[in-house]
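pls design
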């Protein structure tokens, strides 16, 4: 009996030891995974974000985009670099990084890669639209970093969704100040931001900036001005025609062509026949 008892006790002891060893291994595995998870949590968001964008790298597309956005010497996008990501691909990351702190968004905006800057800007739009209490912070950050908003898509895809909405019922001095800037990207931000105003039936700032830009020398300002005037015409054709009747002779031809795009053929011929004086 004693021998059998000893054998049984020994077997139980072995089982207990094995179970304890298993528990210890499980504990260490869990601890390692927890530590790895914490490392991921505190790992730089920028590194993760940039790695995600780089998955969309397309050298062929990049070359096309660098031509399309005029990145050559002396052109408006001189020195800009693309990895070749499409807008839908970049948008697909917006919700994933929408809670990124401003310090990490700034890293994206400071990137030499256009795709990174666009992703950062779209996250700002997401922040602005998600949380009304965060809107002033988004606007302040946007205005502090306009030097990084240096191509027309970065402007056009974001400014009216942030500054346009924010200035609907006040703070219009923000757009006034931008329109007086010596930086034509900031001037474009000013007039394109009024898109939201126009859609709400308020044309005052759009017409004011369009008149201010009559003698502007930058084609991208001419295009933006004509585009916004065309949008005014969609809402109120009389307002557009009154502006054209007063200013058509002084308007840059590109701005005029954009503005009259939706007019009937006879009206188009009339305004294009007016000599610029």
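designed seq:
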């Amino acid at each position: 009996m004693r021998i059998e008892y000893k054998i049984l006790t020994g077997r139980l002891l072995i089982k207990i030891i094995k179970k304890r060893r298993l528990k210890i291994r499980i504990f260490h595995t869990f601890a390692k995974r927890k530590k790895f998870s914490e490392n991921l949590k505190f790992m730089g968001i920028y590194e993760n974000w940039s790695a995600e964008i780089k998955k969309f790298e397309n050298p062929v597309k990049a070359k096309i985009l660098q031509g399309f956005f005029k990145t050559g010497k002396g052109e408006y996008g001189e020195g800009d670099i693309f990895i070749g990501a499409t807008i839908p691909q970049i948008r697909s990351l917006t919700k994933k990084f929408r809670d990124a702190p401003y310090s990490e968004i700034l890293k994206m905006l400071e990137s030499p890669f256009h795709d990174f800057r666009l992703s950062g800007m779209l996250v700002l739009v997401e922040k602005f639209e998600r949380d009304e209490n965060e809107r002033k912070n988004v606007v302040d950050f946007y205005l502090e970093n306009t030097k990084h908003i240096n191509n027309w898509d970065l402007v056009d895809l974001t400014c009216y969704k942030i500054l346009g909405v924010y200035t609907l019922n006040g703070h219009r001095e923000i757009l006034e100040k931008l329109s007086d800037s010596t930086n034509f990207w900031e001037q474009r931000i000013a007039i394109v931001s009024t898109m939201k105003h126009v859609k709400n039936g308020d044309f005052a700032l759009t017409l004011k900036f369009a008149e201010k830009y009559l003698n502007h020398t930058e084609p991208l300002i001419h295009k933006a001005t004509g585009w916004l005037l065309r949008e005014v015409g969609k809402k109120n054709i009389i307002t557009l025609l009154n502006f054209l009747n007063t200013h058509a002779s002084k308007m840059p031809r590109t701005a005029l062509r954009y503005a009259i795009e939706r007019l009937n053929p006879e009206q188009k011929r009339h305004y294009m026949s007016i000599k610029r004086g």
